[in-house]
Amino acid sequence: MPWPGTQVSGKAELACSSEATTACCDCLLPGSCSGPPVDCGRAMTMMSRSGRAHWMLALFFCLLLAFPSHGAQAVEAFVGGYGINYGRIANNIPSPDKVVKLLRASKIRNVKIYDSDHSVLDAFRGSGLNLVIAIPNGLVKDFAANESRSIDWLNENVQPYLPQTRIVGITVGNEVLGGQDTSLAEPLVQAVKNVYNGLQKFHLEDKIELFTPHSEAVFATSYPPSACVFKEDVMVYMKPLLDFFQHIGSPFYVNAYPFLAYTYDPQHIDINYALFKPNPGIVDPNTSLHYDNMFDAQIDAAYAALQAAGYIDMEVRVAETGWASSGDQTEAGASVENARTYNFNLRKRLFLRKGTPLKPKRPVKAYIFALFNENSKPGAGSEKHYGLFNADGRIAYDIGYEGLLPSSAPSYFLSLRKIQAGGRIVHYSPTVILSVSIFLALVT
């Protein structure tokens, strides 16, 4: 049928009456008419200037529909491949409103926190940043025992803030399985189910992702990557959890730290392998896959454990990864130079949107630990020194970000000029560019 505002001869209309859904564009493409080419030419000459413009517009939109952009069209729980953990166990870090300013200036769109602090939720209103909030370990038993508790929590910490605050995910506990408090293992899956039931009551189950991060302690072995399996005592609780996550479509989140692996065994681990620097790498004897960095090997080890347990299609994402810029004398490798090297190379690797040797077509997504150095964190000295930024908002070292204040940190320029908000590298479709060019040329 002709585009409104055009006049096409009956012969031309008959000549182009293809059963294909793109018939509206056929007469405009050489050789596409089923009748004599002269009919299409006569039809074109009969169009007014206004009519020709409408036809060109029709062609333009047909081409756009035929070759759509690969950019995200809907809200995603994780945009691009790069995110940040915004921990706040400190008494000297910037206020949440200044943190939002810092994140937006740094074009970091994916943010994960460890609670549901209302000052943070308020500061993120209208920011456009994706925020994952958390139900801490201390609430897991309560949420498991009482479904109404999850309803109350959602009603207090989620419902009032949507949609202005883009809450896209909720974590239930952190490193529960394989952790020190074994009493949390059994109630974890019921707590997750109760939170999901609450999301359903608010019709949010398709808008908010639900997951729980795991440490490397859930694995019995991780070398070589293909040999990785879950510990037997962990699998008792892991299986029902994975069954449920598979049912609702949640990824498996792991906290992957090459830094910690290196500090445990610096005599046998090549630090270049841990830092993404040139090195011989390793070859997995079971798969013949080559790994030139430990980060990829840790992710593929998680994939191997999932496959061995029967969860072949579940995606692995990284909930935490980072490198300490300082630490105790016993913590080998904790230095500003190593932290800068790891985080620079990791950022570059994530922006390339590539997969791992085992899953080359599935881009890796990771939350970096952490946004700030946190001076009140307990534990080893390194725990206070994972931040990309110092407490005053200055960069801890230069990997391409600018802080809230000028810094004297050594320069380490990031050469990724195509990096855009949220860690996306923008690629313009040649077809779309060609379509625009043709349209502009023909209507002028």
From TrEMBL:
Entry's transmembrane regions: 53-71
UniProt KW keywords: Glycosidase, Hydrolase, Membrane, Signal, Transmembrane, Transmembrane helix
E.C. number(s) listed in UniProt: 3.2.1.39
Catalytic activity as recorded in UniProt: Hydrolysis of (1->3)-beta-D-glucosidic linkages in (1->3)-beta-D-glucans
Gene Ontology molecular function: glucan endo-1,3-beta-D-glucosidase activity
InterPro entries per record: GH (IPR017853), Glyco_hydro_17 (IPR000490), Glyco_hydro_17_plant (IPR044965)
Domain of life the protein comes from: Eukaryota
Enzyme class: hydrolase
One GO BP annotation of this record: carbohydrate metabolic process
PANTHER family per the UniProt record, alphabetical: GLUCAN ENDO-1,3-BETA-GLUCOSIDASE BG1-RELATED-RELATED (PTHR32227)
Assigned protein family: Belongs to the glycosyl hydrolase 17 family.
Name of the protein: glucan endo-1,3-beta-D-glucosidase
The species this protein was found in: Oryza meyeriana var. granulata
